[in-house]
Design goal:
single chain; Rossmann fold; 6 strands; globular
């Protein structure tokens, strides 16, 4: 039996792209590559998941309420929308996180679909054994999602050509990638993708 694979796109939202309130430098530059990955997974009828920050107006995640981040990705705002150039198919499973004002929720594994089902349960339902992860930001939500995926016993492929980091410190992304690889993730690019 073929190993069941899925694509997870992490937080490619307007607020995390240039011009957004918490922009990842050149965050939008990964979108053409992401769209190519999406096309491949879609063509092969493999599930595509897209996580998003979906914060309430007041949350301990934001500076104004004791957190470290400026307000971003507030529910039902333009900033929280997926980047307009990201070509998500209609059957993409959207996962929202950060709704609990008492929780930071960096990992897509803390996210849930419209019915309140968590990512780990959805993956189990689909029989997914291998998760391909891309998106923003390498050093926060991508890293947390990859580490959690490994914890759940999934084989993780980090799409190294479709991630960008916030890099509050110059080498944050580099460190994050090392940490993900240490947890068992494998780096791959579009050139060596086999689905």
């Amino acid at each position: 039996m073929k190993v069941k694979k899925a694509l997870l796109i992490v937080d490619v939202q307007n607020d995390f792209c240039p011009g957004g309130s918490l922009a990842v430098p050149q965050g939008d530059k990964i979108i053409p590559k992401l769209n190519r990955y999406i096309k491949i997974f879609y063509k092969n009828k493999l599930p595509i998941f897209a996580s998003r920050d979906w914060h309430p107006v007041r949350t301990k995640h934001f500076k104004d309420f004791g957190g470290i981040w400026p307000a971003h990705c507030i529910q039902n705002t333009i900033g929280a929308s997926f980047h307009p150039k990201l070509k998500l198919p209609k059957n993409t499973i959207i996962l929202s996180k950060g709704m609990d004002p008492k929780d930071d929720s960096y990992s897509a594994f803390q996210a849930e679909d419209l019915r309140g089902m968590k990512l780990a349960n959805l993956l189990k339902l689909f029989g997914i054994k291998e998760l391909y992860v891309a998106g923003l930001a390498t050093d926060y939500c991508v890293k947390s999602s990859v580490i959690d995926a490994a914890k759940f016993g999934l084989k993780v492929k980090l799409l190294i050509d479709a991630i960008k980091g916030a890099n509050l410190k110059k080498d944050d992304s580099e460190k994050a990638v090392k940490e993900m690889l240490k947890k068992g993730a494998k780096k791959i690019t579009l050139e060596n993708l086999e689905v």
